[in-house]
Fold this sequence. Notes:
Blueprint: H1 2-19, H2 23-34, H3 39-60, H4 67-90, H5 93-112, H6 133-150, H7 155-164, H8 170-191, H9 193-199, H10 202-225, H11 228-251
Helix pairs in contact: 1-2, 1-3, 1-10, 2-3, 2-11, 3-6, 3-8, 3-10, 4-6, 4-8, 5-7, 5-11, 6-8, 7-8
Amino acid sequence: MILGWTLIGAVVGLLLGVTGAGGAVVAVPLFVYIQGVTVRDATVLSLLAVLSASLFNGFTQRKVAHTALAVQIFLFSTVGSILSRSLKARSPDAVITLLFMGVAILSLISVWRKTDTVEEFPAEKRPYPTQNLPKSIMSGISLGALVTMTGLGGGVILLPILRGLFRLSFSAAAATSLLIIFLASLFSLFVQREMLVARVDFVSALALIFGNLCSAWIASKLLSSIRTPILNRLRQFLLTAVILLSILGLFFKI
Length: 254
C-alpha cells in the first residue's frame, strides 16, 4: 500500500527531525500493522525509513552535530552489526520483539533521568579528547548489535549515550544522533540487503522518501520557531508517548 509507505515516512521523519530519536521505535509497529509484515521483516524495513529521514533531517541540523564523535562511534558500530547478524538469523521473532521492548523501556527511563550536560553551544563545536575512545568503542559495538537485532535506528539508544556518557546537550545530542543513525542504518541495511531487496520495490521506496522530505521540512520549521527549554520538554513528552505506544503495540503481537 503506497499510502502506507508515505505515512510511515512522514511519521518517522517528523519524529526524527524533532527529537533525533524514536524513528524506528514507531516504524517497526507501523510496518507490522499497516503493511502486515512480521516483526523480523519490520526491523529491516524500519532501517530504510530512518535512513532517509536521518539524512534529510541531519542535513538541516548539521551545524550543531559533532561529526568526529559520530564517525568514531559509527566505525565501532560496524563490528557489532557484523557480529550480531548471524545471531539474529537464529533468533525467534518473540526474542527479537522482547529485545526491542527492553531497549525501548530503558530508553524511556533515560529520557526522564536528569543528566548534567554541557551548555547549548552556539557556533563552535566542542572537541573531544582521546580519553573518550573507550566510551566510543563500548557505545559503538553495543549500538551496532542492537541496531541489527532490533531494527532500532539508534536514536533511542544514542540519546542516553550521548547525553549521559558524553554530556551533550539535548540539541547537540539530537543532531549528532542523526548523523550516527544515518551511517549505522546504512551499514546495517548493507549486511541485511538480501531481505531488503526481496521486500521493497522502487515505488514504495519513493513514497517513503516523499513522506520523509515533507516531514523534514515541517520539523525544520518547528525547530526554528520554538524556544530551547520548551523544545526539550516537547521532545521528552513526544518520545515518551511514542515509546509507550510502540511497546504496547508490539506486546499484543507476541
